[in-house]
Amino acid sequence: MGLEPESTVVGFIGTGVMGGSMAERLLRAGFRLLVHNRTPGRAQPLLAAGAGWREDPGAVAAESDIVLTMLGYPQDVAEVYAGTGGLLESARPGTYLVDMTTSKPSLAERIWRDAHGRGLHALDAPVSGGASGAREARLSIMVGGEPADFEVVRPLLERLGPRVVLQGGPGAGQHAKLCNQIALASAMVGVCEALAYARRTGLEPARVLQSMEAGAAASWALSHHGPRMLAGDFEAGFYVKHFLKDMGIALESAEEMELDLPGLELARMLYQQVEEMGLGNAGTQALFALWDDEEDDDPPPELVQLGRR
Amino acid sequence: MGLEPESTVVGFIGTGVMGGSMAERLLRAGFRLLVHNRTPGRAQPLLAAGAGWREDPGAVAAESDIVLTMLGYPQDVAEVYAGTGGLLESARPGTYLVDMTTSKPSLAERIWRDAHGRGLHALDAPVSGGASGAREARLSIMVGGEPADFEVVRPLLERLGPRVVLQGGPGAGQHAKLCNQIALASAMVGVCEALAYARRTGLEPARVLQSMEAGAAASWALSHHGPRMLAGDFEAGFYVKHFLKDMGIALESAEEMELDLPGLELARMLYQQVEEMGLGNAGTQALFALWDDEEDDDPPPELVQLGRR
Predict the structure, then answer these.
(1) Contact indicator for B97, B146 with CB cutoff of 8 Å
(2) Which fold has domain B176-308?
(3) Can you give the pTM of this predicted structure?
(4) Does B103 reach chain A within 8 Å, measured CB to CB?
């Protein structure tokens, strides 16, 4: 069975910053789309573009051939999948359930087992690439699940990003995504410290960025977040609060494996300080606020605004 | 005055892993090349390719229009420039002296002042991009000095890498390079921890790399060092001991400015552990040895070999 746009109903639950852009891509590709979001207002642009609204996740699942979920926290995932009127209870046998939230590997395994027992196909498929990656269909998608299920959903996922890799069985997509977050966390610390040093020493930080982008310090984090940090633009592509969630899951999992991750521990501690500054709803580039000398006396409007949310 | 290959004698002091490749580029571009290296054997390939040997830095400088230096530590730079029979004493007025070593900004300023007083043109121009960047002329070159001097040497430097940026006055190239090393240090920690997590959790690390390279964790450090870490290939492009030197300079400078760089402090502590394992002469990717489970009982040949150097 192929999931061709003309004959496939796609359910999409969680139409926030990331999910909204991803759902829009699928809608534009010609899929029939049914959506649900905890905050209905955020689904409005999709409805205006032709998506159908359903009052709860179960109602979406009951009419869909494949349901994609892009939620906030593992507890949201557990609720949407396993709760009363949830996806597992409401989906018709044979339906594909793909959780693209960054969540716990053990939860992904549990969902897979429950789904399997009901004749459903579950996969975990978290993504990386930020809000711009979602908008421009340049996400990296890390999948865990059964190879046969992967082959069915792969063409649809490839519409959201060119690199869709099966990392292993159920939960493996989540583990791979945690690896991604582990590398990213320390990279973000490095970018902040480099720019803080540049600014403090009187260099023109934008010019230093130019040099760094062409050498061994080049990174997505540097090119994507560096200019925003310097501009004091902390608008969220990816929330501080969600990054903290990811780091917490990774550290918990590492602890279970007796694996020391001091860089990740440090990054989490620093991001916790950012959250305590009231910046949990800012983008991850707000880490720079910890080093931003110029905030000391007179915080820029963005900071104040985000702090008040 | 332009530094055209056919009419310019280039002196090159320090023909190690980086300097050797850079000097070879200039030789192949048609410059007449005079070289000196503390360990003469390492200059042999250049001599075989047509470079001239001189017994000391001063003898190189006395016959050169421009002298490039690529040394190990600030004390080496101080000695080669300011020592008896050094570059400052021996160069003819009007000569360009370009230090491409990663060294102390304050030393670069001091050399510039001394050079200026003698009618010499000094610039600091450290590079980033590793051994492969040097071999393939893809270095990022960060320059500090006077704009007029920069314009004279720029075309020559552009033969070593496409991005040559004047970062400011004397010492600014060094400060920019320290920014680069600050970002890189934490990035390396993140790459190691991500791959260690991948391996420990039973994923195929090479496949995780594939996914990470396409998302927000993408970096030069990941793509360049990740595969080497996984292969246990710790051959030096850039030495652990030199990276430690750079981190030390950056931390000292940060301390003077009362700037906290906890990520850099952590990275230095971890790299110090690597050096204590006997891996100071390994490449910076040897940081992964701290997490490499498989080394515990049976170190691979590379590790043992490097440890014995």
Answers:
(1) no
(2) N-(1-d-carboxylethyl)-l-norvaline Dehydrogenase; domain 2 (1.10.1040)
(3) 0.94
(4) no
